[in-house]
């Protein structure tokens, strides 16, 4: 189902992100976590795409397995850096034939440290990929006459390659004008960044739903890795202080991470967020705990209306 149709059914969507495993053993473990998370009835799950197409087949296989063998609405990420038009057409065609309804269209980053010739790219920015996917869906025989629903990335703290925040908003608007139906944000740890981003989107005339990206911190090593991968992302001082007050064990770091993410989600829900996207890191535990504390029911909807006399 198109994500924009899911928004008509539910005021708040919940989604989980996975990355494709690299070995058959990891694939089985991930699949078990996905089945566990399926019980939480997420609105959709998404599967990342390795930089430069490095996981093209792995992503496709995981997406089609999840789509065909679970009841999960599955959204593949697709990046266009170092991808030819033929490669992407092939992949879009496979998704169309299998009835995948939505794609998250991204530019991606060139592989680490390598100089990159942007002039040689068929698709230089995600906005061009959005138009291409929108055009190709009906041409490649997508069963929905509208073709694919398309999501794009948003950056509440700004994207590191564009220090000019006014121009950055113009570029985000260009993705929306190219046909994007929803935005999923980069992870952030201070909700004020998200609220300001949402307000700036409104002022820029961006009216599509914005899904907030939340990552429960699970280890210090993971924090460092994410700071490197999501350049520009910031861990706020109160969070760092809370982590420093622990005994440093993995379990204590994890508890603080889950507590922080739960509080972020509670505050986002109080402020009318349209969706929350969990960066699960291919594990089910943290997301399941957050869900329980937030009061998301077995139908994947928020429990509402129980006033408990208070
Ligand atoms: C939710 C989410 C999921 C992600 N999933 C993946 C994934 O699966 N695989 C992966 O490799 N990466 C992924 N990324 C990372 C993403 O690919 C990188 O952050 C990338 O650098 C930016 O991608 P984009 O789609 O925002 O690109 P774009 O929107 O094209 O923006 C890229 C940069 O170019 C600037 N820009 C855009 N248009 C123009 C223009 N017309 N002229 C000049 N500058 C312009 C933007 O401001 C930005 O700085 C994800 C990020 C998010 C937030």
Kindly report the spatial arrangement of strands forming the biggest sheet.
1-2-3-4-5-6-7-8
Quaternary organization? single chain
* Structural class based on helices, strands and sheet pairing: alpha/beta
Largest sheet: 8 strands, parallel, barrel
The CATH topology turns out to be: TIM Barrel
User: SSE order in H/E notation?
Assistant: HEHEHEHEHEHEHEHHHEH
| Proportion of strand residues | 5-15%
Bound small molecules, by name, code or SMILES, are: flavin-adenine dinucleotide
Return the CATH class: Alpha Beta
The total count of strands amounts to 8
CATH architecture label: Alpha-Beta Barrel
Helix fraction, binned, reads 40-55%
Uncertain stretches: none
Q: Indicate the radius of gyration in whole angstroms.
A: 19 Å
- Count of helical regions: 11
**Total discrete domains:** 1
Could you report the average pLDDT, rounded to the nearest whole number? 93
- Global geometry: globular
